[in-house]
Design goal:
The chain is α/β, with parallel strands linked by helices and 293 residues long. It is built from 11 helices and 8 strands. It starts with 10 loop residues before the first helix and ends with a helix.
């Protein structure tokens, strides 16, 4: 897997980056606070900003897949219509399906690459762009995060729910649906597991927020839950989430990856940790192949 060259990032800068990623400050404030935090902090902060072109692993022209943008109806969502990036394996299908849910900044090139990675493994993958109703992913994560924060959270979730149903109902679909997502998309994976109930057949959230406690009993899909070792905000939710899963008799497994930060699967920044990302993705593919066959 391609990765941005690793640099030694001070923990304080990682914590500032996490705050920046989740809307706690803008880019200028992040860079300024990083510079003030530690010697070399400005360079560390610059290194953490994503470099998508360098991180692509599967080309959109790869002969093993076919990829295109599709639009579809989304009643009750932000605008009533959605757009997504659909990647399918070469061949006639039908194929098991995987919905790939983006972070809190829309459908950026990293998430499109993840959809292509899933297609190479034999899955019909759809990566919806929650920002489509407001013009789509704007080409940079700062504006994307601002746009996503401006949306009604309930309607945005409805757009993801409708995206899952659209994917499951495609002619190329086998009817077996898996969902994976990262950060906001990880929390949305948990939400969809509860909202879809038996219509979802496997879920793999990456460092996602736990769903509402009252909804956990509705989860029927087995879950493979991936966490970073250092991710205080998200990891603090796990004991309650696990208690709810146990009480509901849900099937799940959870993994904490040593030496990782929130976002460790995203190979466009030095938060990427190759060993953890490789193992987590191998587990993800194996889990989907087991439960969506």
């Amino acid at each position: 897997m391609n990765a941005i060259a690793q640099v030694e990032i001070d923990r304080a800068v990682f914590e500032l980056y996490d705050e920046y990623c989740h809307g706690g400050m803008d880019r200028r404030a992040f860079l300024a606070r990083a510079a003030a935090a530690v010697v070399g902090g400005y360079a560390m902060a610059q290194a953490l900003l994503p470099r998508y072109a360098e991180a692509q692993t599967i080309s959109f022209t790869d002969a093993r897949i076919k990829a295109k943008y599709v639009t579809y109806k989304s009643p009750g969502g932000s605008s009533g219509e959605m757009r997504g990036y659909l990647a399918q394996p070469a061949g006639n299908g039908p194929f098991p399906c995987v919905l790939v849910v983006h972070e809190n900044r829309g459908l950026n090139p990293y998430i499109e690459d993840v959809a292509r990675r899933a297609a190479v493994e034999g899955f019909l993958a759809l990566a919806p762009d929650g920002l489509f109703p407001v013009g789509g992913y704007p080409g940079n994560d700062d504006d994307g995060r601002t746009l996503q924060a401006s949306l009604d959270p309930g309607k945005l979730r409805t757009d993801m729910l409708n995206s899952a149903r659209y994917l499951k109902g495609l002619a190329l679909s086998s009817g077996k649906l898996g969902v994976t997502g990262f950060c906001w998309g990880g929390g949305t994976t948990n939400y969809l597991a509860a909202a879809l109930g038996p219509d979802m057949h496997a879920g793999v959230p990456f460092y996602g927020a736990a769903p509402e406690t009252a909804s956990i009993g509705s989860i029927k899909a087995p879950l493979l839950i991936n966490y970073a070792e250092s991710d205080e905000r998200i990891n603090a939710m796990w004991p309650g989430f696990e208690a709810g899963l146990k009480a509901a008799g849900a099937k799940y497994e959870a993994h904490f990856y040593p030496g990782t930060q929130h976002g460790f699967h995203n190979n466009s920044t030095p938060r990427f940790q190759e060993a953890g990302a490789k193992l987590a993705w191998e587990r993800t593919v194996g889990f989907f192949k087991k439960h969506l066959a």
